[in-house]
Design goal:
Cofactor (chain A): FAD
GO cellular component, one term (chain A): chloroplast stroma
Shape of chain A: globular
Structural class of chain B: alpha+beta
Shape of chain B: elongated
CATH architecture of the largest domain in chain A: 3-Layer(bba) Sandwich
Radius of gyration of chain A: 25 Å
Helix content of chain A: 25-40%
Number of strands of chain B: 18
Mean pLDDT of chain B: 75
Low-confidence stretches of chain B: 1-38, 133-179, 230-239
Enzyme class (chain A): oxidoreductase
Oligomer: heterodimer
GO molecular function, one term (chain A): flavin adenine dinucleotide binding
Distance between the termini of chain B: 80 Å
Strand content of chain A: 15-25%
Helix content of chain B: 25-40%
Number of helices of chain A: 18
Largest sheet of chain A: 8 strands, mixed
CATH topology of the largest domain in chain A: FAD/NAD(P)-binding domain
Function (chain A): Lipoamide dehydrogenase is a component of the plastidial pyruvate dehydrogenase complex (PDC).
Low-confidence stretches of chain A: 1-78
CATH class of the largest domain in chain A: Alpha Beta
Structural class of chain A: alpha/beta
Number of domains of chain A: 3
Largest sheet of chain B: 6 strands, mixed
CATH superfamily of the largest domain in chain A: FAD/NAD(P)-binding domain
Strand order of the largest sheet of chain B: 9-18-17-16-12-15
Number of strands of chain A: 23
Distance between the termini of chain A: 37 Å
C-alpha cells in the first residue's frame, strides 16, 4: 500500500517538476500556484498527503523513506553487489546537502573527504568570512561617530584585538565543521577519509588502496582560489582568501585584486580594521556581475566614502611579495592594450580573482571525461558529459567543480536535485531562482536576472519588462536603525506579473532576498504575492512595497474562494 | 527621463515620493553676465542637488555641443554626494559650449556649460566659454595654479578629448614630473583631494617614504597656519588657527561626555584641603631616573598611590548616597588635555607596579589617547584622579570631582620659595602646592589631612618610590 502510494506520487510528480523548472516561459501549471496560497496555509499539513504536493510533511517522512528504499530494491536496477547506493566525493556544503537528502531518501550513502569536512565554505570561505564581517560591521558602527550621535549613543575609542578576531573566525569554522560532521554521522553517512579517485563506472579508490563501489557517484570536489600567472603567492604579504581568513596581520595598505564578492567583502573587513585598500579590477567598472544600478549605489556607499581607491581596466601582470625591506610590488598593465601602466607599492596584496575548479587527480581520464578550463562538463541534470559529448551513466558533478553557479547553496541544491533523480524522480534545478548575497555593510543580494540581462531576454523573446524600485529610506525599521541607505529593485513582466529578477542593497539584504527567490522558485506572480501580509514594522516591508509598486496587468490568478475566518 | 537617469532615486516608486526632497529638475537660471555679454547666452550652473552638496561630478552629457534643447529636456547627468540626477534646461536654445567635461568636477553654482538662444550665437558663446572661464577665476594665469576652479578651466580647455571617467582618479597619482612617482596611500590621496593639498610637495612619513593621511593633514594644517600668519589684520591674532570666531560649534562626543560628567558632579557635596609639599628630594630623584624613562607624572602617581594605600578611605567611592565602596585596587587616573577635549587615562594598581613599568604604561596610554584608541577600561576605571597644571606655571588651582570617585588632587608647579626653617633661618626650597577635592559624604577633613601628611612625607623622602 505504501509503495503504491509512493509510486503514484512519483509518477505524476515529474511533469509537475518540469513545469516548475520551465516556469519562466509563459505556460504555467496552476498546481504550483497553490503552494504559497492562503488555502494551503489554512488547511495545514493534514491536507498534504492528498494534494499533489511533492513536499513531505514531517509525520510521513519515515514512511516515505521506507517506501523509497523498498522501491529501489524492487525495481532490480541496483544489484546488491555495490558497497553503497551513493558515493559522494567531497564533503563540502554540496556533498553534505546531497548526503543528507540521500539518507532521507533511504540511500546507503558514503562521503569521501581528502582534507577536512566542510570544504571551502566552512573552513576557508563563507563561514569564517562571516565571523570577520560580523566584527567589521560592529567596528564600523562604533567608528561612525555621527551615526552613533544620531542615535544618542556615546562610544569612545573602539578598538580590537587582532588575535581575538582571528580566533572568533577559527572557532566558528571549527564549530560549524563539527556540526556538519556530527549531522552526517548521526544519520549514518559513512565518512571515508582519503583522496577519492574514480577508477571506472561505479568504482572509486579512496586513499591509496581502499576501493569502494557505488551505484551512483557524485563529484563534489569544489574549487580553490584562482591565482593568475605572474603572481607569486607567499601566504604572508601576497595572499589568497585562504590566508586572509586567518587574519594573521592587518596591513596598513592592501591591494585587492578583483572587486567581486570576495574582494568586496574583504575590503569591508580590512577598512573596518583600519587598513587602506586599493582595488585592481580588470573590467572597466568595479563590481562586475552586479546589476549596474546596484553596483553604482554600492560603490557610492561601500567604496567612495571609505579609505579605498581603485584602478579599473587593468591587469596585475606581476606581483612580487615583500622581502628584504621592499614592499609588495604590483605591475599593472592595460587590460586591452597590454601596455604597462603603473607600479603599485603596497604592504600586502589579496588575490580575489575568482576560484578555479579542483578536479585534478580525480581520475577523470578513466571515464573519458575532459575538463573545460578545469570544470567538469555537465548537462542541466548535473550528469557528467564525456569527451565525446555523451552522458556518463551514474556519474554526476555538482558545485564549484561544474562551474554552473559557484555558490555553496547552489551546490547543495544541485546535490539534492541529483538525489531526486537517482531515486527515480526527474528534477531540474532552476538556477535563476538561486539567490546570491554579498555580506558587506550594508549587504547586497540578488536573484534572477540583472536589468541588462532581462532587457536582452525581453528583446529576444519579444515581451515587455518593467522595473520597480523602493528605497530603504521609506522603511520604518531601517530608519529606526538609522540605516536608510538602500534600494530594492524588481524587474518583472507587466503582462503576466512574472518576477525576472530582484536586487537589494541595504540593511540585511541577504536575509530579505528569500521572499523573492522563493517566489521565483515556486512561480508565484506579483499579483498574488502582493496580497501576502508582512509584519510591521520590519525590513521585509521593503519587499512588500516593492511588489505593491509593480504595475501588473494580469489579474489575481488564484483568488481565495473560501475565506478562512479566525 | 527615468531610464536615462540610471539613478537609484528616480521617483518611480510611490514610496520615494515622501523621501528625498530633491527635485530631479534643474537650476538652469539665466543670469545677466558682464556688460560685454549679451543676455541671450546663458550659463548652465552646477545645481545644488542636496542640502549637503558642495560640488558635483559630471557623469555624462546627455546632449552634445550644438544640440538643440527645448525647455524641460535633460541636458546632463550630475553625481552629487547622494545620487545621480539629471539636470533639465528651463530654456529653449542650443548647447553652445560644454565647460566641464564628463568626469570633471565643479563646485555648486559654477558654470558648467553655455546655452545660446540661436544657432548664430554658438560661436560667440564658444569664444566666451574660452575667455570667461579663464577670466572668471580672479588670478589671471591659468596654467600652473592648482586650486579647484582652475581645474575646471583646464578640463574645459581640453574639452575635445573625451577622458574616460576613471582618468580623473588615475591622474592624481600617475607618475609626475621626470617620471618620479608619488606613492601615497588611498586615504592620503582622498584627503589630498579634499583638502586641496598637492601631493607632490609632501614628504611621506609612512613605510618606505609613502605619503599617508597624517602627512596630508599636517601639510593642510601647515598651509592654514601660514595663511593665517600671512593674512593681514585680526585673523593673524586669533587665538589659534582654524577657529572661526562668532560661530556656534556643537559639542563633540568627548565634549558632550565631559559636560555631562561636570554637571553630574554638582550633586556631590565636596570640600577642599590644600597642602604645601617640599619637592627638593623628589626633583633630585627625578633628575637621577629621568634617563631611565621615568616621568614626573609617574612619580607623582606612584607617590599618591603609596599614600592612598595607607588611607583606603580616600580611595573609596560613594555612588548611591547610602553606602560606599573601599576600592580593591588603587587606579590613578591622570587628566590629559587633548585637542578639543580631556581624557583621564588610568594607571592601574599604581601602588603595586614599579615606577619604570608605570612610566612605560603612561607613555603607552598617552599615545593611545592621542590616537583616540583608548579602550573604555583604560579611561573610566580610575579610583583617584590627578590633575597637574604645573607645567604651565600654575601654582595652585582647584579641581572638580569626577563622579564615581572619592577624590581628585590638583597639583601646581614646583617653585623655588623662600622659607623659614625651624632652626630660625631663612632658606630656599622647591615647593609645590596640592589641593584635594573630596566627596564629604565619605571622606572627612581629618581623612584628607592625614592622607596629605603621608603624601608629603613620601614626596619629601622619596626613596620608596623607586623600590
Amino acid at each position: 500500500m505504501q509503495a503504491s502510494l509512493s509510486l503514484s506520487v512519483a509518477s505524476h510528480a515529474s511533469p509537475a517538476a518540469l513545469a516548475r523548472s520551465n516556469h519562466s516561459s509563459a505556460s504555467f501549471a496552476p498546481v504550483n500556484l497553490r503552494f504559497c496560497g492562503l488555502r494551503r496555509e489554512a488547511f495545514g499539513f493534514s491536507d498534504l498527503k492528498q494534494s499533489e504536493s511533492r513536499r513531505v510533511c514531517p509525520s510521513s517522512a519515515r514512511r516515505w523513506k521506507a517506501a523509497v528504499s523498498a522501491l529501489a530494491s524492487d525495481n532490480g536496477s541496483a544489484p546488491k553487489s555495490f558497497d553503497y547506493d551513493l558515493l559522494i566525493i567531497g564533503a563540502g556544503v554540496g556533498g553534505h546537502g546531497a548526503a543528507l537528502h540521500a539518507v532521507e531518501k533511504g540511500l546507503k550513502t558514503a562521503i569521501v573527504e581528502g582534507d577536512v569536512v566542510g570544504g571551502t565554505c566552512v573552513n576557508r570561505g563563507c563561514v569564517p568570512s562571516k565571523a570577520l564581517l560580523a566584527v567589521s560591521g560592529r567596528m564600523r558602527e562604533f567608528q561612525t561617530e555621527h551615526h552613533l550621535k544620531a542615535l544618542g549613543l556615546q562610544v569612545s575609542a573602539a578598538g580590537y584585538d587582532r588575535q581575538g578576531v582571528a580566533d572568533h573566525a577559527n572557532n566558528l569554522a571549527t564549530k560549524i565543521r563539527n556540526n556538519l560532521t556530527n549531522s552526517m554521522k548521526a544519520l549514518g553517512v559513512d565518512i571515508l577519509t582519503g583522496v577519492g579517485t574514480i577508477l571506472g563506472p561505479h568504482k572509486v579508490k579512496v586513499g591509496s588502496s581502499n576501493v569502494v563501489t557505488a551505484k551512483d557517484v557524485i563529484i563534489a570536489t569544489g574549487s580553490v582560489p584562482f591565482v593568475p600567472k605572474g603572481i607569486e603567492v607567499d601566504g604572508k604579504t601576497v595572499i589568497t582568501s585562504d590566508h586572509a581568513l586567518k587574519l594573521e596581520f592587518v596591513p596598513d595598505w592592501i591591494a585587492i585584486i578583483g572587486s567581486g564578492y570576495i574582494g568586496l567583502e574583504f575590503s569591508d573587513v580590512y577598512t573596518a580594521l583600519g587598513s587602506e585598500v586599493t582595488f585592481v579590477e580588470a573590467l572597466d567598472q568595479l563590481m562586475p556581475g552586479f546589476d549596474p544600478e546596484i553596483g553604482k549605489l554600492a560603490q557610492r556607499v561601500l567604496i567612495n566614502p571609505r579609505k579605498i581607491d581603485y584602478h579599473t581596466g587593468v591587469f596585475a601582470s606581476k606581483i612580487t611579495p615583500a622581502k628584504d625591506g621592499k614592499p609588495v610590488t604590483i605591475e599593472l598593465i592595460d587590460a586591452k592594450t597590454k601596455e604597462p601602466k603603473e607600479t603599485l607599492e603596497v604592504d600586502a596584496a589579496l588575490i580575489a580573482t575568482g576560484r578555479a575548479p579542483f578536479t585534478q587527480g580525480l581520475g577523470l581520464e578513466n571515464i573519458n571525461v575532459a575538463t573545460q578550463r578545469g570544470f567538469i562538463p555537465v548537462d542541466e541534470r548535473m550528469r557528467v558529459i564525456d569527451a565525446n559529448g555523451k552522458l556518463v551513466p551514474h556519474i554526476y558533478c555538482i558545485g564549484d567543480a561544474n562551474g554552473k553557479m559557484m555558490l555553496a547553496h547552489a551546490a547543495s541544491a544541485q546535490g539534492i536535485s541529483v538525489v531526486e533523480q537517482v531515486t527515480g524522480r526527474d528534477h531540474v534545478l532552476n538556477h535563476l531562482s538561486i539567490p546570491a548575497a554579498c555580506f558587506t555593510h550594508p549587504e547586497i543580494s540578488m536573484v534572477g536576472l540583472t536589468e541588462p540581462q532581462a532587457r536582452e531576454k525581453a528583446d529576444k523573446e519579444g515581451f515587455e519588462i518593467s522595473v520597480a524600485k523602493t528605497s530603504f529610506k521609506a522603511n520604518t525599521k531601517a530608519l529606526a536603525e538609522n540605516e536608510g541607505e538602500g534600494l530594492a529593485k524588481l524587474i518583472y513582466r507587466p503582462d503576466n506579473g512574472e518576477i525576472l529578477g530582484v536586487h537589494i542593497f541595504g540593511l540585511h539584504a541577504a536575509d530579505l532576498i528569500h521572499e523573492a527567490s522563493n517566489a521565483i522558485a515556486l512561480g508565484t506572480r506579483i499579483q498574488d504575492i502582493k496580497f501576502a501580509v508582512h509584519a510591521h514594522p520590519t525590513l521585509s516591508e521593503v519587499l512588500d512595497e516593492l511588489f505593491k509598486s509593480a504595475k501588473v496587468k494580469a489579474q489575481v490568478s488564484s483568488p481565495v474562494s473560501e475565506p478562512v475566518a479566525v | 527621463m527615468a531610464h536615462l537617469l540610471n539613478t537609484p532615486f528616480v521617483p518611480s516608486a510611490q514610496t520615494l515620493r515622501r523621501s528625498p526632497n530633491l527635485p530631479p529638475g534643474a537650476r538652469i537660471s539665466g543670469r545677466r553676465g558682464r556688460a560685454s555679454v549679451q543676455a541671450k547666452i546663458r550659463e548652465i550652473f552646477m545645481p545644488a542637488l542636496s542640502s549637503t552638496m558642495t560640488e558635483g561630478k559630471i557623469v555624462s552629457w546627455v546632449k552634445s555641443e550644438g544640440d538643440k534643447l527645448s525647455k524641460g529636456e535633460s541636458v546632463v547627468v550630475v553625481e552629487s554626494d547622494k545620487a545621480d540626477m539629471d539636470v533639465e534646461t528651463f530654456y529653449d536654445g542650443y548647447l553652445a559650449a560644454i565647460m566641464v567635461e564628463e568626469g570633471g568636477v565643479a563646485s555648486v553654482g559654477s558654470a558648467i556649460a553655455l546655452l545660446a538662444e540661436s544657432e548664430a550665437e554658438i560661436a560667440e558663446a564658444k569664444a566666451k566659454a574660452n575667455s570667461s572661464s579663464s577670466s572668471s577665476s580672479s588670478p589671471p594665469p591659468p596654467p600652473n595654479t592648482a586650486a579647484p576652479e582652475p581645474q575646471v578651466v583646464n578640463v574645459a580647455s581640453v574639452a575635445v578629448a573625451k577622458p574616460p571617467p576613471a582618468a580623473a582618479v588615475a591622474s592624481t597619482h600617475q607618475a609626475s614630473d621626470g617620471g618620479k612617482r608619488i606613492v601615497a596611500s588611498p586615504y592620503a590621496k582622498k584627503l589630498a583631494k579634499e583638502l586641496k593639498v598637492d601631493l607632490g610637495r609632501i614628504l611621506g612619513s609612512g613605510p618606505l617614504g609613502r605619503i599617508v593621511a597624517k602627512d596630508v593633514e599636517e601639510a593642510a594644517a601647515a598651509a592654514v597656519e601660514s595663511n593665517v600668519a600671512a593674512g593681514s589684520g585680526p585673523a593673524a591674532s586669533s587665538p589659534s588657527p582654524g577657529i572661526q570666531l562668532g560661530t556656534v560649534v556643537p559639542f563633540t562626543t568627548m565634549q558632550g561626555a565631559v559636560s555631562k560628567n561636570m554637571v553630574e558632579s554638582l550633586s556631590v557635596p565636596t570640600f577642599r584641603v590644600g597642602y604645601t609639599i617640599t619637592t627638593d628630594a623628589l626633583d633630585a630623584l627625578y633628575k637621577k631616573v629621568k634617563s631611565k624613562g621615568v616621568t614626573m607624572t609617574a612619580l607623582l602617581a606612584k607617590a599618591t598611590a603609596l599614600a592612598l594605600a595607607k588611607h583606603p578611605v580616600v580611595n573609596s567611592s560613594c555612588r548611591d548616597g547610602n553606602s560606599f565602596t573601599y576600592n580593591s585596587s588603587i587606579n590613578i587616573a591622570v587628566a590629559v588635555a587633548l585637542d578639543g577635549g580631556l581624557i583621564t587615562p588610568v594607571l592601574p594598581d599604581a601602588d603595586k607596579v614599579d615606577i619604570y613599568s608605570l612610566s612605560r604604561k603612561w607613555k603607552e596610554l598617552v599615545d593611545k589617547a592621542r590616537a583616540k584608541q583608548l579602550q573604555p577600561h583604560e579611561y573610566n576605571t580610575g579610583t583617584f584622579t590627578l590633575s597637574n597644571l604645573g607645567m604651565f606655571g600654575v601654582d595652585r588651582f582647584d579641581a572638580i570631582l569626577p563622579p564615581g570617585t572619592g577624590a581628585i588632587m590638583a597639583v601646581g608647579a614646583s617653585q623655588p620659595s623662600v622659607v623659614a626653617t625651624k632652626d630660625g633661618r631663612i632658606g630656599m626650597q622647591n615647593q609645590m602646592q596640592v589641593n584635594v577635592t573630596a566627596d564629604h559624604r565619605v571622606i572627612y577633613g581629618a581623612d584628607l589631612a592625614s592622607f596629605l601628611q603621608t603624601l608629603a612625607s613620601i614626596i619629601e623622602d622619596p626613596k620608596d618610590l623607586t623600590l
